[in-house]
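User: Predict the structure for this protein chain, please.
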Amino acid sequence: MISAKHSQIPTAGPGQNLGHGVVASESDAVDSSGWRVSRVDADRKINKSTIMKQYKLKPDQFADLKFNVEWSTREGPNGKPIPYRTYYYMEQEVEHRAWKLHGGPEAFDAYIDKLRSRRRIRPFLQPDSIASGTSAALDGAVAEDPWALSPALTRMKRKFPIWLWLRCNEALSGDEYSTAEAREGALKTALKQLGSYPPRPASSLPPSESVDALRSLLAAAPRRSDTYDVDCFENNVTGQLYYDWNVGYLERVLHALIDIMQQHGVDDQGWKIARWEVYDRSVKCLGGITLRRSNDETCWDDRREALVGESAQVTQI
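Assistant: Here is the predicted structure, written as C-alpha cells:
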C-alpha cells in the first residue's frame, strides 16, 4: 500500500555544487531566455531512477532539486512487509537542468540523438518530449516508448487505449517495476481489473450555456488537500486513504451533466464527451489510477464511476 508519508527538500542556494562543475549562482552564465517552451506537463513527476535512465543525469547533477519521498511496502521473502522509498521530482525542473548542463534544449537533443545512434540491442530510454530518431524541435513527433521493455510489453500495449497505457505505466513508477517482468505482471492485472473504458473523444464540446456552467463548476472543484467538499475514506484492509468529492458537490456536477443532456443529448455531441471532462478533473484534483499491493494481492483503482456510472470500488483478484 502507499503511505501518506512525504518529505520535501529545499532547492540549492547560490554557490552549491550541482555536479560536474555546474554551480548554482544568482548570475548564471547560461541564458535561457531563448529556449523553447517545455512540452512536459507542469504537474508531471518523475522518479530518481527514471531521471538517470531517460535524462542520462547522475545523482549529483540534480541533487539540489526539490523532491518528495513516498514510502510503500512490498512483500518480503518471509511474507512480512518490507518498506521502500521512491524519490519523485518535477519533470520540468529535471528537463531544464538537463538543458542547462548541455547548453540548451537543442544541444541536449543532439546529445540524446548521439547516444541513441550508439544503441545496439538494449532498449534506449529517453524523455517522452524528445522524438525517436530525430530532434525534439520537430513538433508532433512521437517519442520512443520507454515502457515497452520487451516483446510481451509491446504486444500488451496494443490492448490498451494509449492514454490508459500511459496512466498505468506512470503508476508503476517505483523502482520495483523497472524490470520488464515486474511491469508485465502488473499491467496484465490492470487489464483484468480496470475493465474497458468508453472511447476517449478526440475533441471537446463547443461552448454553450450548459457546457460553460459545467466547466465553471469543475474549475472550482475541491482538491484532496482542501478542507471543504471532500470526503476521506479508509480501506479497512489496507489502511489506504481514498478521497472523493462529497455528496453536495457531486449533486451539483450531476445536475450540470443533466443540463448538458437536455441541451445536447447523450450521444457524441453531449454527455458522452462531457463525462470525460468530469473524469479528467476528478483525476487531477483527487488522484487517478493507482496500484496498491497488500500481501499477495495486487489492486488497481480508478475513478471510472464518472464514465460508466459504477460505484468506486477497489477490485481484487
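The two ends are 16 Å apart (CA to CA).
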